[in-house]
Design a protein that fits this description.
Number of domains: 2
Distance between the termini: 52 Å
Structural class: alpha/beta
Radius of gyration: 19 Å
Strand order of the largest sheet: 3-2-1-4-5-6-7-8
CATH topology of the largest domain: Rossmann fold
CATH superfamily of the largest domain: NAD(P)-binding Rossmann-like Domain
Largest sheet: 8 strands, mixed
Helix content: 40-55%
Number of strands: 10
Length: 296
């Protein structure tokens, strides 16, 4: 990817990850379009991006957002002149395949076609693009503006040029890439989901509280955030989708979703974004131990 010219990036999906990726792209000076079918979600994303991008600017500034941000509900129109596309819709196989089917139809042949998946097969998603060599995984981490890592996942048919373009895009965004093969869970999800499941089952079995499990990993192992804090931040519904996908792909019972997670999501406890998960959160997002039972 030519670093000497402007890059037009399209991010598909205006949820937590999509808006995070769009934010760092704007901060890096990339013309960015976010596409989502829901205008209300797009507006919420616009406000969240505005708060992040304009943080530290003069409060009286009338130029709240860089002029390079666009919002759209029309995928065909948005993809017409894209140099790079990053899909960031929920971790649901049929949804992602449907998105890539549309990307195949509407995006320029030259465009980099990336998925932000954390568990799904990049090679399988490429099949929805007729096996395009331009499809690659670019797994960002939440919160995107703080997390330096991007996991670049090379599918069976991914070309060397595509890999080089993805690495160059990481550089434009100020991210540090690692390159991994397309196997279930890649590197980070394979490790992180196991740790999260073990932590949830400790709480489920009433071995220790969520706060003490997290404290053990922060103080005993130097983790910046405990596994249950992280699950709340990612979203318990998103974590459940990830586990279902990973379990389906690997068949490994270690990745089967813990019963406590299934119950919490069914009850609407989705973590920080819903105000309650393994912890409770106030309107400012400040965390407190949950006042609701977790183990039963």
């Amino acid at each position: 990817m030519d670093r000497s010219r402007g890059v037009k990036l399209v991010v598909i999906g205006a949820g937590t990850m999509g808006r995070g990726i769009a934010t760092v792209a704007l901060q890096a000076g990339l013309g960015t379009t976010i596409v989502d079918l829901d205008p209300a979600v797009l507006e919420d994303a616009r406000q969240a991006i505005e708060r992040r991008v304009t943080r530290g600017r003069n409060a009286d500034s009338t130029d709240a957002l860089p002029p390079s941000l666009r919002l759209s509900t029309d995928l065909r129109a948005a993809l017409g002149d894209a140099d790079a596309v990053i899909e960031a819709v929920p971790e649901v196989r049929d949804l992602k395949r449907a998105v890539f089917g549309q990307v195949r139809e509407f995006a320029p042949k030259r465009a980099l076609l990336a998925t932000n998946t954390s568990t799904m097969s990049v090679s399988e998603l490429a099949e929805a693009c007729d096996g395009s060599a331009r499809v690659i995984g670019m797994h960002f981490f939440n919160p995107v503006h703080r997390m330096a890592l991007v996991e670049i996942v090379v599918g069976n048919g991914t070309s060397e040029q595509t890999k080089a373009d993805a690495i160059a895009l990481c550089a434009r965004l100020g991210k540090e890439p690692i390159v991994v093969r397309d196997v279930p869970g890649f590197v980070t999800s394979r490790l992180g989901l196991l740790l999260g499941n073990a932590a949830m089952r400790l709480v489920e079995d009433d071995v220790a509280s969520a706060a003490d499990v997290d404290k053990a990993m922060r103080l005993g192992y130097g983790h910046p955030m405990g596994p249950l804090e992280l699950a709340d931040l990612v979203g318990l519904d998103a974590r459940l989708n990830n586990l279902r996908s990973m379990f389906a792909r690997s068949g490994d019972p270690q990745y089967s979703p813990p019963a406590i997670l299934e119950r919490m999501v069914e009850a609407g406890r989705r973590g920080k974004k819903s105000g309650t998960g393994f912890y409770d959160y106030d309107e400012q997002g400040r965390r407190a131990p949950s006042t609701q039972g977790l183990a039963s």
